[in-house]
Input
Amino acid sequence: MKYDCVIIGAGLSGMAAAVRLAHFGKKVLVCERHSRIGGLNSYYSRRGELIESGLHAMTNFAAKGAPKSLPLSKLLRQLRIPYGDLAPRGQNGSKIDFPDAVLEFSNDFAELADSVAKRFPHSIDKFLAFDEFVGSYDGLNVTAGYVSARSVLKERLDDELLIEMLFCPLMYYGSAVVDDMDFAQFAIMYKSIFREGFCRPAGGIKALLDILERRFVEGGGEILEKEPRDSRFPERGLVKNCRVATVNVEGGVVSSATLESGEIVETEKVLSSAGLPETESLISASDASKSVADTAEPGVLGFVETVAKLDAPMSARGYDTTITFFNNSAEFAYRPPEEPVSAESGVVCCPDNFRFEAGDFVPTPQIRVTMLANPDAWNTLRENRSDYESAKIAATETALKVAARISRTANIADSVVFTDTFTPNTITRHTERINGAVYGSPMKSKDGRTKIKNLFICGTDQGFLGITGSMLSGISMANMHLLA
Output
């Protein structure tokens, strides 16, 4: 059988593309190397508890009946998912916490505007004018080149501290560029977080993944738990435990994909969610075709995250903030630290501090701390198991101290039931992302094209970030390149 498209990876972008293609009767094969879909946003069990990997929150909250032009509304419509199936629950409220200022924001932009007016009264007029400018900016223009967000903000805002505070959450939620962002991505994330806001699916990440699998099956797809031994792949299939080893190129055009088992699958097109440099490493050419593929620069921004299961919710201790983005100085440094992990800035999240309703999946009481990490340092530590484990323990202790300080709650460590910490090496091991760079390469392909004319990418290195952005990336690339 020859497929219309082989999709590499059943992360959120790959699955969204697969659902979209299945709705239109395309012959599509999704190859997922793990036994569970979701990629960077999935879940696992630890001591009988379901722990979500990657999910702090969804961006782009939209209330039921919101305008169809909003990203979340568009996503649900394109994937034919009823609003009530996702049932997004809004945040309690979040903060940007710097030594000399705190900005509070929620899913009501007026709260951020009021906070800026109180702390930066001399800058509020320029901030509101900047907000209007960002609102009209087309961040989705796939032909636009890179524009430094720092240069744009310095032109339009007059307070350095305010600029740094605005950058902190947006970079932590989606920049692959050291100390800067492409302004198009800044605009997307600004509207996603400050204008629309944070939410969670009522059923958590597992429910979202179940919805995507169900929509794929309802579109005629078949889900296999492992690669069939008799080469009988379904016409529309999601195959788990199935890794693409090479993308075979002849004369500058993809002709097939070879699976790790040796099975060769013919296809008209390939859509990869594996990342741009990672996808390029899969290209196998019998002629000079491989030379036309530029070598994308791998990402260098890694993170360490600690999940601490608690014996009681943080809200019971008087801390009901959903997410705090913190920085310990007036200048925000978004770059790999010299040491394995840095507590100079980061993200503190309580996934159970959302506005849940009866019957929702409420995450186990926990606090999650994310900090910048040095992938090279962790790669060196990995060479000695004892050194690596000692560094993880030290990072965990640091994270708990950060959580206590940011939440202004003493003795959090005494309330910890268990902890789990991931490093850049954890991400590389589970996703094959170079350097464990969750935001991928700083080189984005906004239109999803590569130098191989029928090889496309979606997800992080296409440039849409976050849970909503990832799914919209898969939808957009399917619409643009595979259904056109």
Q: What stands out?
A: The radius of gyration is 22 Å.
